[in-house]
Design brief:
Polyamine Oxidase, Chain A, domain 2; 3 domains; about 30% helix
């Protein structure tokens, strides 16, 4: 009896790895074809001069439900940040913290100028509603923009401008808070129920863990795909591979191209991150620092204060994200130092620039995301499936959900005989 050919998965990003993991658990053979030299897509980590540099600023939310089901947190050796943020506003840092998890910060947080006492009470209400998945039902439906949700809750303009806009602008990589309510609710619930953390060996350890669960030889690296012809995949090398089915687990632009659709190149959400080596941290303790006013810098984070493994002994690794910059990248390190001198003083002039990551497709376009959770079918034609973070919430958790859902669709159609 002739063996059934494997399911061919294009792309070793988290969605593709999660899909393959589920298929193999069910006894279905698959092969992942990855164009680059490693797994993970954007979820990769490079070692540069002894520092661990993720590809753009990233953190892991331990409260993501699919991640909890899929990943081995203990093996990732997660290093948490403090719950909350330091907001730089009016020449000083002000604390916004979660009083349920850091009661020692209650007084400072309550009386900081980042919002009123009423805002702090509303933040607790929002926390509860997100955990109970009630936000969208209370605030006008899953498609309502986050900015309207916050306005309907009654948050002051000061709270939105000084906290939510810089914080969520960094999370969703869009400054207008247009992200639909269902995604905001999903992410805010994860912030509320778990930690913001870094794996000890970098964000790339997440993809490495998924890949390690697959049989040897499942992932083929440096195998860019040129075209899909029915159930056959044509590689740029000229090799043709026959599959029982073909599934596309790439970024949205590549997926559209492989499906013969018009590319959305240039419409993804952009991230620009600069990494600096410093002789000492500008602030002690693992806090995310936000710009509560105007200016070039959006966030500052001393990654090595959360995960000392990110920097050599005696050094500090600083990650800085900036607002909307795709041009003049060579001058950006000097401009960032100049902007941050008012935050940290002259010590910024001793920071050594390690790398700038300008990622033009860090997150998928908002208008490509579904209007509600689990409304996008992975089946796009007989024997052809497409999935990725853009088919769900646009988050790492969404990528894992999408991979599982695609595997379940494939298993329903191609169950082992």
């Amino acid at each position: 009896m002739t063996a059934r050919p494997p399911i061919l998965i294009i792309g070793a990003e988290p969605a593709g790895l999660a899909c393959a993991r589920r298929l193999i658990q069910a006894g279905v053979a698959c092969t992942i074809l990855e164009a680059s030299d490693g797994v993970g897509g954007r979820v990769r980590t490079d070692r540069v001069d002894g520092f661990l540099l993720d590809r753009g600023f990233q953190v892991f939310l331990t409260g993501y439900p699919e991640a909890r089901r899929t990943l081995d947190y203990a093996s990732l050796n997660l290093k948490p940040f403090h719950p909350g943020a330091l907001i730089h506003y009016d020449g000083r840092f002000h604390l916004v913290s979660d009083p349920l998890r850091r009661p020692q910060d209650l007084t400072k947080s309550l009386f900081s100028p980042i919002g009123s006492l009423a805002d702090k009470w509303l933040a607790l209400r929002l926390r509860r509603d997100a955990a109970q998945r009630r936000v969208c039902a209370l605030m006008g439906g899953p498609e309502r923009p986050t900015r309207d949700v916050l306005r309907t809750y009654g948050f002051s303009d000061a709270m939105v401008t000084r906290f939510f806009k810089p914080f969520l602008g960094g999370v969703f990589l869009e400054p207008t808070l247009s992200t639909p309510c269902w995604i905001f609710q999903h992410v805010w619930a994860a912030f509320s129920r778990g930690d913001v953390a870094l794996p000890n060996n970098g964000m790339g350890a997440i993809a490495q863990q998924l890949a390690a669960s697959l049989p040897e030889g499942t992932v083929r690296l440096n195998q860019p795909v040129k075209a899909i012809e029915g159930s056959t995949v044509l590689l740029h090398s000229g090799e043709r591979l026959e599959g029982a089915a073909v599934v596309i687990a790439t970024d949205s632009d590549t997926a559209l191209r492989l499906c013969g659709e018009r590319s959305r190149e240039g419409t993804g959400r952009v991230s620009t991150t600069l990494y600096f080596d410093a002789p000492e941290p500008p602030r002690r303790e693992p806090w995310l620092m936000l710009n509560g006013g105007e200016g070039l810098v959006r966030t500052v984070c001393v990654l090595s204060e959360a995960a000392p493994s990110y920097a050599p002994n005696g050094r500090a690794l600083i990650s800085i994200t900036v607002n909307g910059h795709g041009h003049g990248l060579d001058e950006l390190p000097d401009r960032v130092r100049a902007s941050l001198e008012s935050w940290f003083g002259s010590q910024v002039n001793r920071w050594r620039h390690l790398r700038t990551d300008h990622i033009s497709h860090a997150l998928p376009p908002l208008d490509l995301l579904p209007s509600a959770p689990e409304t996008t079918s992975p089946r796009i034609a007989p024997g052809l499936y497409r999935y990725g973070d853009y088919c769900e919430s646009g988050t790492l958790d969404g990528a894992l959900v999408s991979g599982r859902r695609a595997a379940e669709a494939i298993l329903a159609d191609y169950a082992p005989s």
